[in-house]
Design goal:
Structural class of chain B: alpha/beta
CATH class of the largest domain in chain B: Alpha Beta
Strand content of chain B: 15-25%
Mean pLDDT of chain B: 90
CATH topology of one domain in chain A: MetI-like fold
Bound molecules: glutathione
Mean pLDDT of chain A: 87
Helix content of chain A: 55-70%
Oligomer: heterodimer
Order of helices and strands of chain B: HHEEEHEHEHEEEEHEHEHEEEHHHHHH
Strand content of chain A: 5-15%
């Protein structure tokens, strides 16, 4: 009688950690984790030891001492008597402004270039291909410097706007393009302008409400409202009415040449323009590719089906292609926005006073607190990036495929 | 257990790294060259010539130190640093000594953990403008656009000067002198401000130097000098006394031409004898041999020679000795006694 042969009972041997495929990957991971931790410990330890050897400690008190330097572009008031912390804040706002405006402009140019690259017009498509390749394949820093060089070398000095000079202002003498920046009229808010602004904000909200109503109505009854024309009317009419009703409280102050520079008006500095344009152009090339891939990802059959149902081309784009393409477009778009924000730290190259130039530049140089400054800088960029991704993820989940 | 041993070893390694960083002289000797933190290019002070050899007033001091310590004035590696990176580079040990138009200030000497060991040029901050903007005093600069290098005492002085005089200005920050020069010449700023020596050196490179004036106001004290890391006094001594040796050499009439002759045997001036090592053991006291100062002077000349050759009145930069004359000539240069 055959004795039932038990399968040999598994006993765990240490060598299995190395030779048994089931355990080996775990062993490798554990060893790697330990090594990385040791490396980190070594790094921190080394830093602290070396700082101690230099007689330096880690303290953040410098943030509350007087900065002592001036900043040209300030969105909140700042004088050299304010603290380093406030200087950092001025820098942070400058970073955010250039990043936000950069994201907007990059998206506009990027979408245009992406769509045009798919154009059936050979020349347009090729020009856009050239644009995208030229932008994508050269370092951003070079574009920043090129735009800056053009802005400072190719534009007239303020004194050339004087009587008998070779330069003159444009747009009915309201805008001056000089090598120190572009001077544009600045709105002056007199009494009653609050009402006008409130009306404007309400009309913008009204536009969104209108669009909502229109969509609902279409879904319920199939009727289509002329949303675009109504929105346009809502945008202008109430605000203009309020403006004249209140006796034109908002006036424009045009820049005027005084002393050495233009006085009055709003100065958009060359450093800002260079950074903003270069960041936008550079990032737009990547966005163009993302948009193109998003559109190409939607199969042609969808368009043909829509046409077969008698849906007009622009409605096809709006209702069928775009909603699906956005799903493909949004996630990589987020990382482009993050890139743009982080790339704005190249500002120092043209002397734009972003947070890298104030906190991460002058402040750490004047106080000798490199480690602390860089740490704070890292934390700032980290938090900003996380917020941008969070907001964009929220938007993404509103457009992404809803499984019901 | 094993981990503890490993960590312990790391800590020791870290400490050892810290300790070795303190003995700069050993590093320099082991390397066989001196790492000198210098300018990115300021004519007369530190800039590579047509053959790529660094020349200038600050460069000469680097070469003198290398000659004293290593016996070879060419054994210097120049590390160009911007005003923003210079102190970090020195503190991190990327350079052994920083000789880069750097002003000796309280906070740099203490809080930044540097040691300024002397002054090789007494300077002050000034303003340069074009003749044709019709300004004759810095007080008339209200509303101007001013180019400044960031990370300097210049930008702090500037803020103070305009605030105290209650006039407004628009700062245009630049990272290097070259960038400042380009912006100023393009007319992107009305005024360029930095140390007067730097202004003179910059103006000397202009095509039409005569179209620019340096305004009469000197708005600050800028004692420029060599800096070393805090906590390495032996190395600090060597740099300090090399500078003093060049200054004393001028005072006693020792030049690159006659130094060999004077060093051949004791002279009648005991101070010269001690300086040149024919009497006493001064070299040994700073860990060098007795000919250290002879080599330094033979390599670059005394202070006066270095000054006249690089930035003096016969050069395009054309600076007068002014405050930088010997104390015997009404200047501020005063080397402590060699004894
Ligand atoms: N002495 C001032 C200013 C030093 C400074 O940056 N000087 C300028 C002009 S005098 C310079 O050396 N620039 C050369 C460069 O940018 O490489 C300081 O120590 O903060």
């Amino acid at each position: 009688m055959a004795e039932a042969t038990d399968p040999p009972r598994e006993t765990f041997r240490l060598s299995q950690l190395l030779y048994d495929a089931r355990y080996r990957s775990m062993t490798i991971q554990v060893v790697a984790a330990i090594l990385i931790m040791l490396l980190l410990v070594e790094l921190v330890d080394n830093t602290v030891t070396n700082l101690a050897a230099l007689g330096k400690d880690i303290r953040f008190g410098f943030l509350w001492s007087t900065a002592g330097y001036d900043i040209n572009q300030q969105l909140i008031p700042f004088t050299s008597q304010d603290t380093h912390a406030r200087a950092a804040l001025v820098g942070i706002l400058n970073t955010l402004v250039v990043a936000a405006l950069g994201c907007i402009l990059a998206t506009i140019i990027g979408v245009l270039a992406g769509v045009l690259r798919l154009s059936s017009n050979w020349i347009v498509a090729k020009i856009m291909t050239f644009y995208v390749e030229a932008m994508r394949n050269t370092p951003l820093l070079i574009w920043i410097l090129i735009v800056f060089a053009v802005m400072t070398e190719a534009t007239p000095q303020p004194r050339e706007f004087r009587e008998g000079g070779s330069a003159s202002m444009i747009l009915w003498d309201s805008v001056a393009i000089s090598n120190r920046g572009v001077y544009i009229p600045r709105p002056i808010w007199a009494e009653g302008s609050g009402f006008v602004v409130a009306v404007f904000v309400l009309s913008v909200i009204g536009i969104f409400v209108l669009r909502h109503i229109a969509r609902k109505r279409q879904q319920d009854t199939g009727q289509i409202l002329p949303v675009f024309r109504l929105s346009l009317a809502l945008f202008f009419v109430p605000t203009l009415l309020a403006y004249f009703l209140m006796g034109r409280p908002v006036t424009l102050e045009t820049p005027e040449l005084g002393g050495f520079n233009f006085a009055g008006g709003l100065q958009i500095r060359n450093s800002f323009i260079a950074l903003w344009l270069a960041l936008s152009l550079y990032t737009s090339a990547f966005i163009a590719e993302i948009v193109r891939s998003g559109i190409l990802a939607i199969s042609k059959g969808q368009t043909e089906a829509a046409f077969a149902l008698g849906i007009q081309p622009n409605r096809t784009m709006q209702l069928i292609i775009l909603p699906q393409a956005l799903r493909v477009i949004i996630p990589p778009l987020i990382s482009q926005y993050l890139n743009l924000t982080k790339n704005s730290s190249l500002a120092i190259a043209v002397g734009y006073m972003d947070v890298r130039s104030t906190l991460g530049g002058i402040t750490i140089n004047q106080t000798g607190r490199e480690l602390e400054g860089m740490l704070l800088l890292g934390i700032f960029y980290l938090i900003t990036s996380l917020i941008i991704s969070a907001v964009m993820n929220l938007y993404n989940s509103s457009v992404k495929l809803k499984e019901r | 257990m094993n981990k503890k041993v490993f960590l312990g070893a790391l800590t020791v390694a870290g400490l050892a790294a810290g300790a070795s960083a303190a003995a700069t002289i050993d590093d320099v000797k082991a390397r066989g060259s001196l790492k000198c933190g210098s300018n990115e290019g300021l004519a007369g002070f530190a800039a590579p010539d047509a053959n790529g050899v660094w020349q200038g007033f600050d460069v000469s001091l680097c070469r003198a130190i290398a000659a004293a310590v290593l016996g070879d004035a060419q054994a210097v590696e120049f590390v160009p640093l911007t005003s923003q990176t210079r102190f970090t580079a020195l503190a991190a040990g990327e350079v052994d000594v920083l000789i880069r138009n750097s002003t000796w200030t309280f906070s740099r000497d203490t809080d930044l953990k540097l040691d300024f060991v002397g002054v090789n040029y007494y300077d002050g901050q000034g303003f340069m403008v074009r003749n044709d903007i019709g300004v004759s005093s810095a007080k008339e600069l209200d509303g101007t656009t001013v180019c400044i290098q960031t990370g300097t005492t210049t930008e702090l002085n500037l803020a103070d000067f305009f605030r105290v005089n209650n006039i407004s200005y628009e700062p245009v920050p630049v990272a290097t002198n070259a960038e400042g020069q380009q912006q100023y010449l393009a007319g992107a700023c009305d005024v360029y401000t930095t140390d007067i020596s730097g202004l003179a050196a910059t103006r000397a490179t202009f095509e039409n130097a005569g179209e620019h004036v340096i305004l009469p106001e000197v708005v600050s004290k800028e004692p420029l000098g060599p800096a070393v890391r805090h906590g390495d006094s032996e190395w600090g001594d060597i740099v300090r006394w090399t500078l003093n040796a060049l200054i004393a050499a001028e005072e006693y009439g020792v030049t690159s031409a006659n130094v060999m002759e004077l060093a051949a045997g004791p002279t009648t001036n005991p101070e010269i004898n001690r300086l040149l090592g024919t009497e006493g053991e001064l070299g040994a006291m700073i860990g060098l041999d007795k000919d250290w100062a002879v080599r330094a002077i033979a390599a670059v000349g005394n202070y006066g020679e270095v000054f006249e050759r690089n930035i003096g009145e016969a050069t395009p930069i054309g600076l007068a000795r002014g405050l930088n004359a010997q104390w015997t000539e009404g200047g501020l240069l005063y080397a402590p006694p060699f004894r």
